[in-house]
Specification:
heterodimer; A: 486 residues; mainly alpha; 17 helices; globular; B: 341 residues; alpha/beta; 5-stranded parallel β-sheet; two-stranded antiparallel ribbon; 7 strands; 9% strand
């Protein structure tokens, strides 16, 4: 089931209306039933996978606690089953294709089997979420839960099941277990988030997505057209993914849950580390806590640290999809982080002042306004290059794109590129305004305190404008949420 | 205050769009007509019905008519087929069209022309015939073949949609007069960059035409991935969808007009040198589709699994190459005698 459908709105209204009439345990049972209905709505067989994953992780965690001497065995079982399923559905064909290519390079032409099944939607998200439970139990940071129902609700909670944000067991499980009370304040804020999320998806992401799709369908883009398309894609992926997060967080609030934020105005980032502190936060922190730190994190030599960063980002890229362009994208961001750190280390050596402990996602130091703007613009340009790697699935197309030069474009192509850039920018103005406004406020800009009735009026107008925008400006081409494919 | 604030927001959300009613008075939208598919859309501006092909068909009096999308277009060369069969061939093709368009072409062009070709071929992929919604959004193609009312098609579409969603959406949009507002707001939003770049109307219009041309088929990448979207098993439920599709309408109208219909299921792109994967659900679907079509007096041809149609015939996605088209047409013509009664 997808958020931007009447099916979902009816389903959600029904769930909420019944939910608050039930006692706590029955609420959880309803949540599980609703989540499984939501997930199996189109492909019921997906439920076998999530059901198996839940049972194995529940049993593994219980086993670790009951037989501590064999906890490694149970952890291995959990890892093998989770990554086995993920690997089979997501990476099998990638492995086979590359093996066939390698064999062909060696003169062996083998006809290898190809997997012909759909990639189960959201498998990467709920697998990582389930893994966080067993790993935390293994580390002794969380006790194994006795209630299978609670664990199943934690893994399958429908608002964020398909595209995150990935929640930690230590954060979400206590909410599943605790009694929940309806709060109008939470529901109202959830409502605003959902309205904003629907606007971002239907008006911004889907409209600029059409521009990006057109550009990346061209066999002969010019430099200007290509980069206008990359800009459109940068807007699309942010608006699309953050819209899903907003709707997920908003709908969770109606059910008495609070999910963690997943985006913090990433295009306002000033450094690569700052970008990853703001982009897909739940995934970056998952990789930080379960890959980067166990690898050694920032302990040891600079070379070791750089290796840890590159491995973490390579895996993060591969998480997004079974394709070399995602690996490149991950490595690119890893290299950016390493280079930034290298610069900090040199500065530290030159000034003699110790830099802060080099955490993976260190926020940048405060600077003057002009410098902040320049840094943010520079980081946005760097992220655009990353989005080119992300969007082009063929390495040959990436190589062709990188050979494009503005000196060889026709006058028409320059105009077309400018037109597309302005069009994409026009649709994204609400995003930029919101991000700049938030950043401005964070930097301590003096604010007049508005009376509450005035703020309420602004909110009412914003809600009406968003709904009006959806009515007349929603894209005629309805696109799936991009992160569904991961 | 918090309760009031939330209620105020709800009121804003529901009431502010009524401003479209006022704004529409400043920007009147002439040319809005009731849709021939009211089950899924409100009034809109539409292109007129094109009656030209009716007289063209009557004049041509073809021996064969070929209806379909680019699957048919990349497989049948009308001139070659006409030469090989010694009968004129009328191609009624539209790239990106779907079963609603194919039905309207049959009902509003072929049958009114009074022709009696030896056979009317309709090319399709997998479950297209029972999915009336497939490419129904291509109104620019549908308008010239649709009359002011298409009650049969609309009824089918309404049944297929389950329609609560669209009735609610259409009702909501009509309350706010949103379709009328969209008609002038959407072009304005999409045109502002061009207006900023080119202040004068004529060169701007020329630029917009050049812009469209820049993204035409000749500039697109091969669509291997884009055009290979697998048939979802959910669509392969023949019993659930057949009465909510245009297929029974096509069979009924052809029977009444004394036309012989022949549905050709094209083979999708072979994978790894083998016939594309046929899920059990799809195999069951095709068996039922074949039985249904033949029970209703029409002919069913399935290219899937034809060993002659190898990967080297294909260009991008499920489309055949220029050479493949020639070879397919020759093969198709050579087999006609066995296939047609």
């Amino acid at each position: 089931m997808i958020f931007h459908s009447l099916d979902f709105l009816v389903f959600f209204a029904l769930v909420v209306s019944v939910y608050w009439r039930l006692p706590h345990r029955a609420q959880n049972a309803l949540l599980l039933a609703a989540s499984y209905f939501f997930y199996g709505y189109v492909h019921p067989w997906f439920l076998i996978l999530i059901g198996s994953s839940t049972l194995i992780d529940y049993a593994s965690a219980r086993g670790m606690e009951q037989w501590p001497a064999r906890r490694r065995l149970f952890m291995a079982a959990s890892i093998a089953s989770n990554f086995g399923m993920l690997g089979f559905f997501k990476y099998f064909n990638f492995f086979v294709d590359n093996l066939a290519a390698a064999l062909a390079a060696g003169g062996i032409h083998a006809s290898l089997p190809v997997l012909r099944v759909l990639l189960p939607v959201g498998i990467s998200f709920y697998t990582f979420q389930a893994m966080s439970y067993t790993i935390d139990v293994f580390r002794g940071e969380l006790r194994a839960r006795r209630s299978l129902l609670d664990v199943a609700v934690f893994i399958s909670f429908f608002p964020h099941l398909v595209a995150g944000p990935i929640q930690r067991a230590s954060y979400l499980l206590p909410q599943v277990e605790a009694k929940r009370r309806f709060s109008l304040k939470a529901a109202a804020s959830g409502f605003y988030l959902m309205v904003w999320g629907f606007f971002k998806k239907l008006v911004i992401a889907d409209n600029v997505g059409v521009i990006a799709n057109k550009v990346f369908a061209l066999s002969d883009p010019s430099f200007e057209i290509l980069w206008a398309g990359v800009f459109a894609f940068a807007i699309q992926i942010y608006a699309d993914f953050s819209a899903y997060t907003d709707i997920a967080r908003g709908s969770s609030r109606w059910l008495g849950f609070e999910l963690t934020e997943n985006f913090d105005h990433p295009y306002m980032a000033r450094t690569p580390a700052d970008f990853w502190r703001r982009w897909n936060i739940s995934l970056s922190t998952w990789f930080r806590d379960y890959v980067y730190i166990p690898l050694g994190g920032s302990r040891g030599s600079d070379a070791r640290w750089a290796g840890n960063v590159l491995v973490t980002f390579l895996l993060s890229g591969l998480w997004h999809g079974a394709s070399w362009n995602y690996v490149l994208w991950g490595l690119y961001h890893g290299v950016l982080l390493v280079l930034t750190r290298g610069r900090l280390s040199r500065r530290s050596a030159a000034t003699g002042k110790p830099q802060p402990t080099h955490a993976l996602l260190q926020p940048p130091a405060p600077h003057g306004r002009a410098r902040v703007i320049l840094q943010a613009a520079g980081m946005f340009a760097l992220s655009l290059f990353g989005w080119l790697l992300f969007r082009e699935t063929q390495l040959s197309a990436i190589a062709r794109d990188l050979r494009l030069s503005p000196w060889h474009s026709s006058a028409l192509d320059r105009r077309v590129g400018l037109y597309l850039l302005l069009l994409a920018f026009g649709y994204s103005v609400p995003l930029w305004v919101q991000s700049i406004w938030i950043e401005w406020r964070r930097r301590g800009a003096p604010l007049r305190t508005w009376p509450s009735w005035s703020a309420a009026g602004v909110r009412a107008i914003a809600c009406g404008a968003a709904f009006a925008g959806i009515l007349v400006l929603r894209s005629r081409t309805s696109l799936d949420f991009i992160y569904f494919q991961f | 205050m918090r309760d009031v604030s939330f209620l105020l927001s709800l009121a804003g959300l529901l009431l502010l769009p009524f401003g479209f009613r006022l704004a529409n008075r400043v920007h009147p939208a002439p040319g809005m007509q009731p849709s021939y598919l009211p089950a899924i859309e409100g009034p809109r501006e539409r292109a007129p019905f094109d009656a030209g092909p009716i007289s063209d068909l009557a004049r041509m009096n073809p021996g064969f008519v070929v209806i379909g999308d680019s699957m048919a277009g990349s497989r049948i060369d009308p001139a070659v087929l006409a030469r090989l069969t010694a009968r004129p061939v009328a191609p009624l093709l539209y790239a990106g069209s779907g079963p609603a368009w194919w039905y309207l072409v049959l009902e509003n062009w072929v049958i009114p022309s009074g022709i009696h070709p030896r056979c009317v071929f309709i090319f399709f992929r997998d479950t297209n015939l029972t999915n009336v919604l497939f490419r129904i959004d291509a109104r620019w193609a549908m308008d010239p073949v649709a009359h002011a009312r298409e009650d049969d098609l609309n009824a089918v579409v309404a049944r297929r949609r389950g329609s609560v969603f669209y009735r609610v959406r259409t009702a909501l949009e009509n309350v706010y007069r949103a379709p009328q507002a969209r008609r002038w707001i959407e072009p304005a939003v999409n045109a502002w960059p061009a207006e900023l770049m080119i202040p004068y109307h004529k060169p701007r219009a020329a630029f917009m035409q050049q812009l469209n041309d820049r993204f035409d088929l000749a500039h697109l990448r091969p669509m291997e991935a884009a055009d290979m979207q697998a048939t979802e098993d959910r669509e392969a439920d023949f019993d659930a969808f057949v009465d909510r599709s245009a297929l029974p309408l096509m069979l009924r109208d052809a029977r009444q007009a004394g036309l012989t219909l022949c549905f050709v299921r094209v083979q999708r792109r072979p994978v790894g040198g083998r016939t594309p994967f046929q899920s059990p659900a799809l195999q069951r679907y095709v068996a039922k589709l074949k039985a249904y079509i033949e029970h209703n007096g029409a002919i069913f041809i399935d290219d899937t699994g034809d060993p002659a149609q190898t990967l080297d015939w294909y260009a991008d996605g499920d489309h055949l190459s220029h050479d493949g088209r020639e070879r397919y047409t020759e093969l198709f013509a050579s087999r006609l005698r066995q296939r047609l009664p």
